[in-house]
Fold:
Amino acid sequence: MDLELKDKVAIVTGGSKGIGEAIVRSFIAEGAQVVNANRSTAEGEAMAAEYAAQGRQCVFVQADLSETDACRRVVDETMRRFGRIDALVNNAGANDGVGLDAGPDAFVASLWRNLVHYYSLVHFALDALKASRGAIVNIGSKVSATGQGGTSAYAAAKGAINALTREWAVDLAPHGIRVNAVLPAEVMTPLYARWLETLDDPAAAQRDIEALIPLEQRFTTAREIADAVVFLASVRSGHTTGQIIYPDGGYTHLDRKCTVSTAAQLQS
Ligand code: NAP
Structure:
């Protein structure tokens, strides 16, 4: 299938590592030009150089997206370089464990890291997205549907992202802009690996989680998330909007009977 993304321009936030990096690479594999907006610099600059050597565009913009001016700068720089925006993928974020004990200031600070920049980027990119009849894909989390415990702010941010996906799909349908969300559950990324390392026995914890995933008892790959995102950003999903998609091997929704026997076998 030709996704018709050749020479289209996509902004990907947090595109230097993990799921964001996979999204950047999937867009470029389809011929798109990408602006990667990321807080740290090393991996983003290395990716930009790697693709420049192949004659491909993977522009790196250093930005801490918890600052509103940085969000504006990402859009301005994209317009300066390419003059258009066809897709915006809001991905940057982290489950930061700001729970009920952390207090209101920590809660609000987490929302700036995980939620407000999703709104700000759409706000600043709106004219360009209207001009291209572009697409927005928001990366959420299964936590928005299941809860997790100990992470009130992240759960609130991801819940709001589901709501905003529907809200913006309604707002922007008259302009031909589609808005969808992709919700990972268990994907091995630098962030996830850091969390596993905080546990007493990371390997055993990983095996326990894998046993709970109905399809093939394995984590979803970042590439599997990325390909779903890039498809949703493409005109080949031209009548899909306001959808919340879970590429998670059935982890969030399938009948617990699917996994109880596997988990029991592994524990015996
Ligand atoms: P990751 O490995 O930490 O990669 C995230 C990237 O985003 C990093 O390069 C990070 O930059 C960047 N970033 C984070 N906050 C930023 C900010 N304020 N401004 C600019 N860049 C920022 O994380 P991941 O696991 O790929 O997660 C990506 C998305 O998927 C997140 O929204 C997360 O909530 C969601 N998710 C992941 C999983 C999973 O299993 N991995 C499950 C559910 C949802 P630095 O290099 O500076 O850290």
Notes: The mean pLDDT is 97. Strands lie at 9-13, 33-38, 58-62, 87-90, 135-139, 178-182, 244-245. Residues 14, 16-20, 38-40, 63-66, 91-95, 113, 139, 141, 184-187, 189-192 surround NAP (CB under 6 Å).
